[in-house]
Amino acid sequence: MQFTILSHAGLLVQDQGVSLVSDPWLRGSCYWRSWWNFPEAPPELIANLQPDYIYLTHLHWDHFHGPSLRHFDRETQMLVPLVHTRRMVKDLQDLGFRNIMEIPHGGKIKLGNNLFLYSFQFGITVDSAIVITNGETTLFNANDCKLFGLPLQQIKKRFPQIDFVFRSFSSASAIPYCIEDYQQRFGEFRSAAQYIQEFTEFSLTVGAKYAIPFASNHCFLHRETQEFNPTAVSPTAVAQYCNQTSQVRGSSSQCVLMPPGSSWSDTQGFNLREFDYQQADAYIAHLQEKYHLTLEKQYTKEAQVKPDYRAFERYFTALFRALPPGLPKISRMTVLFHIYQQDNNYHHYWLLDFHHRKTVTLTEPIEATLTIKIPALVINDCCRKRMFSTWGPSKRLRIRLGQGASWVEVRVFLSLLDAWENEYLPLWNHLRPRYLGIWLRRWREFVEAGRLVWRWRGRSLPVEELYRSRPPAPDILVTK
């Protein structure tokens, strides 16, 4: 077996003439020119890439990247997790792909002579992880899938000898970074040290020979999101902490940095591409210069787009109709969208009134539970394409909290949009055979959620408690 890191979350696996690519964001940017690969994939690596199979873990655009997928043969066998919504299947069909297979939670597909892929789903955002094995080498690609407890134990019991584990290690959320004055209000919420510790606890719990920091190799080039580059977690710091912790605990697990272009094979071992993550600022400046014209075209395009209130009204009217009655937290919420265009010279104010379940246009801003500033182009895309799930990762929004509100209200609102777009609403959907079959396979998540609610009852949950079979982490200084 051989595998190669292609990009941010792109992975190529080859075995006895069979090849599989997962989550191929290989070219350009995503999230309205906000995210860019860091570092970029070597052009010669992706120029003639034609795998037998492509697996897509979930719908976020840094994993399900339309511009990259258009470069593949439409006859390629596409693999996706069998989840509640068929959105991934429909979007692939819109791109021209016809050979699409949904894999249920815990299910497997034979890729080659002795090569198998297993899919495991987890969480409200309909994320998935995969295990690929040929009986001699086993790869566990968790990417963004934050498995813990019984769902993680299910994989460990099924695959007691894991050779490589791949997992994300940095933020892909608007919380807390897009909240006004978050440094003063929520400075300790989801810090770099917490992400590093979470990666380490997960990796050492899995017990793989090698842990690979993965699916967080991106930077921000858009002028509205450049400020978030310093919030990225350093892969070097991840490897340093993980290896020190492994040594202190007497574990043989080793964290290895594998920038895009790096590979491993069962005959040659590691072939690591050189890249100095400590020179991140210089590389980002290089990308800014390289893509200057592309970014300028994006700014010009955004300045010309007018907000589409009809699309906004259609989206949220349908959402209001799908909501069940008696939701106290949501029913008291108001969300004011502050939409701007023409380089911030024209402003529009659209209100979501959850109590009366209606949308309202305003001429002036008012006090609301949440006030969210967003470009016209972004709000139009989110409404027309039903893709608010991409909105948070993009960080193309700014949030001001109303009196008495906190990051919890932001989480509730964004989770509600996720639930709507993943077709968890209306609730009667869950009586469908497809839904019932999925939930029965994923019963461990319900048990684990109940355990957490009972044990912590609203208190802050220490990261190490998610992996309570492990001894406490050592007191090691985490440096960025």
TrEMBL record:
Protein's organism: Gloeomargarita lithophora Alchichica-D10
Name of the protein in its database record: Zn-dependent hydrolase of the beta-lactamase fold
One example GO MF annotation: hydrolase activity
Keywords carried by this UniProt record: Hydrolase
